[in-house]
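A note from the maintainers: we've had questions about how concatenated examples are separated. There is no special marker in the raw files; a new sequence line simply starts the next protein. For clarity in this README we add a label.
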Amino acid sequence: MPSTRKPKKRTYSSPVRRKKPNVLIRLLQKLPGWAWWFGGFVVVALYVFFFYYFFVSPFGFRWRALYGDVPYPEGYEIHGIDISHYQGKIDWEKLRNNGMIEKCPVRFIMIKATEGASKLDDNFIDNFYQAREYGFIRGAYHFWSIYSSGRAQAEYFIKQVKLERGDLPPVLDVEHKSKSQTDEEFKESVLTWLRIVEKEYGVKPIIYTYYKFKLKYLSDPVFDEYPYWIAHYYVDKVEYKGKWKFWQHTDCGRLPGIKGYVDFDIYNGSYYDLKRLTIGNEE
């Protein structure tokens, strides 16, 4: 007679020994629910803080300028702009007829001409011609390159830019210093450009740079002999204590005839003074 007893179930144990969670994991597993919520809140708060500190704060003034919350500097009547190929094709008739900054017409236009020792701005020839045709006081600027000597850059600028009576003095836009140069070597290179260009056109060139850069590298008395065009954005007044002729106060300007944003500038003086600064009309 067959047996009625049920066979015993056999149990098997895995030959691989399970590792216990490390101390940190075990502690986290024992945390109450409110601690998880608190920890999550701290992580989010830290993320927001660092995001603001590194990405929002440095550009906060620009964001306000984009939305019109920062007023333009008061007390100045002579306004201008500076342009390059970044502004694309300009509708010069619209700009002349409707271009107003703080209810004042655009009086002068600084135009990018060259960069380094071999690069001509794509729109320079047309921009430079049209600016005069439409009655603006025009100027041409050179963008300094750390990869070419001051002499080579000056010679290239002179080759490409033919200034005429009534034009503003040539401009050197210098914003960077090569790490391979000492401060003295850099200063001498900049002075080489300034002296060669001054000899060619018979007027002292204008130096454009940020005021902190000027204080750090171009504060020697010899550089104060040249008119200064200061770049200082989104502030009500210039913090630089020295003399200056032009102030680029925003890169968020909008004008009829120009697509996108354009830099706005002011001249520190009267329209008569501005005319006297031009080539052939110097005091």
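[label: protein 2]
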Amino acid sequence: MSTPMNRTPLNADSLSRRLAAAGYAHVDVVQSTGSTNTDMVRANPPHLSVVLAEEQTAGKGRLGRQWVSPAYSQVICTVVVELAGVKPASLGLVPLLTANALATAVNEDVATAVKWPNDLLVHGRKLAGILVEAIQITPTPKLAIGFGLNYDLERPELPVEHATSYTLEGGNRSREDLIVVLLTHLLEAVQRFMSMGGAPATVLPRYRQLSATLGTQVRALLPGGDVLEGTAVDIADDGSLTITTPSGHATVSAGDVEHLRS
């Protein structure tokens, strides 16, 4: 098969076998889709169903930002999880849990940090983004955990100047091997989170270790257009970010956070 820049398509049979051995229920690899998250939210498949796309034409990130890429150049994935025993109040931790898992996997060969709430950074450049969407909240929370990771984009292909890719940073796993490592870590994190009833202690200590945001001067762009500047000092039990400002402490649970240069 001819592919752009001789990139290699995923082997769906091999991935299905390897991810089934890791514990996933069903794996689908599609050539192209608008958004893997949209597809999974609409289809409402069983727990631990996975879809991977070779190309995404209408992907979206947090705050509705567009997320697109050349074919075969990224890991584009959505996993459906049913979080039995986890209360809705704990669901704000799932994006952080996902960031922990993906960063831990990538850290095996590329030093990676997390930017609140759920971007992966390498030397301050964005490697991956995460978007978690609810399929249902009750009676059992069911979520679509989506992420896109730049695999072998070359510098002229990067969507923005402050982005990077796994291979540009020295990563040498094949795309299939990287997917297996990422999803193995994600499943382990989800299972631990469920076994502990969504306890913050299963997420926050590791997230704080990986955080590139804590201790940094930040600007938070809040829903409604308000702007908050200060120092990011902690992550609350619900996953929100605590910022110290000249007028005191403020908590940010939604919005976009920029790291300011010192």
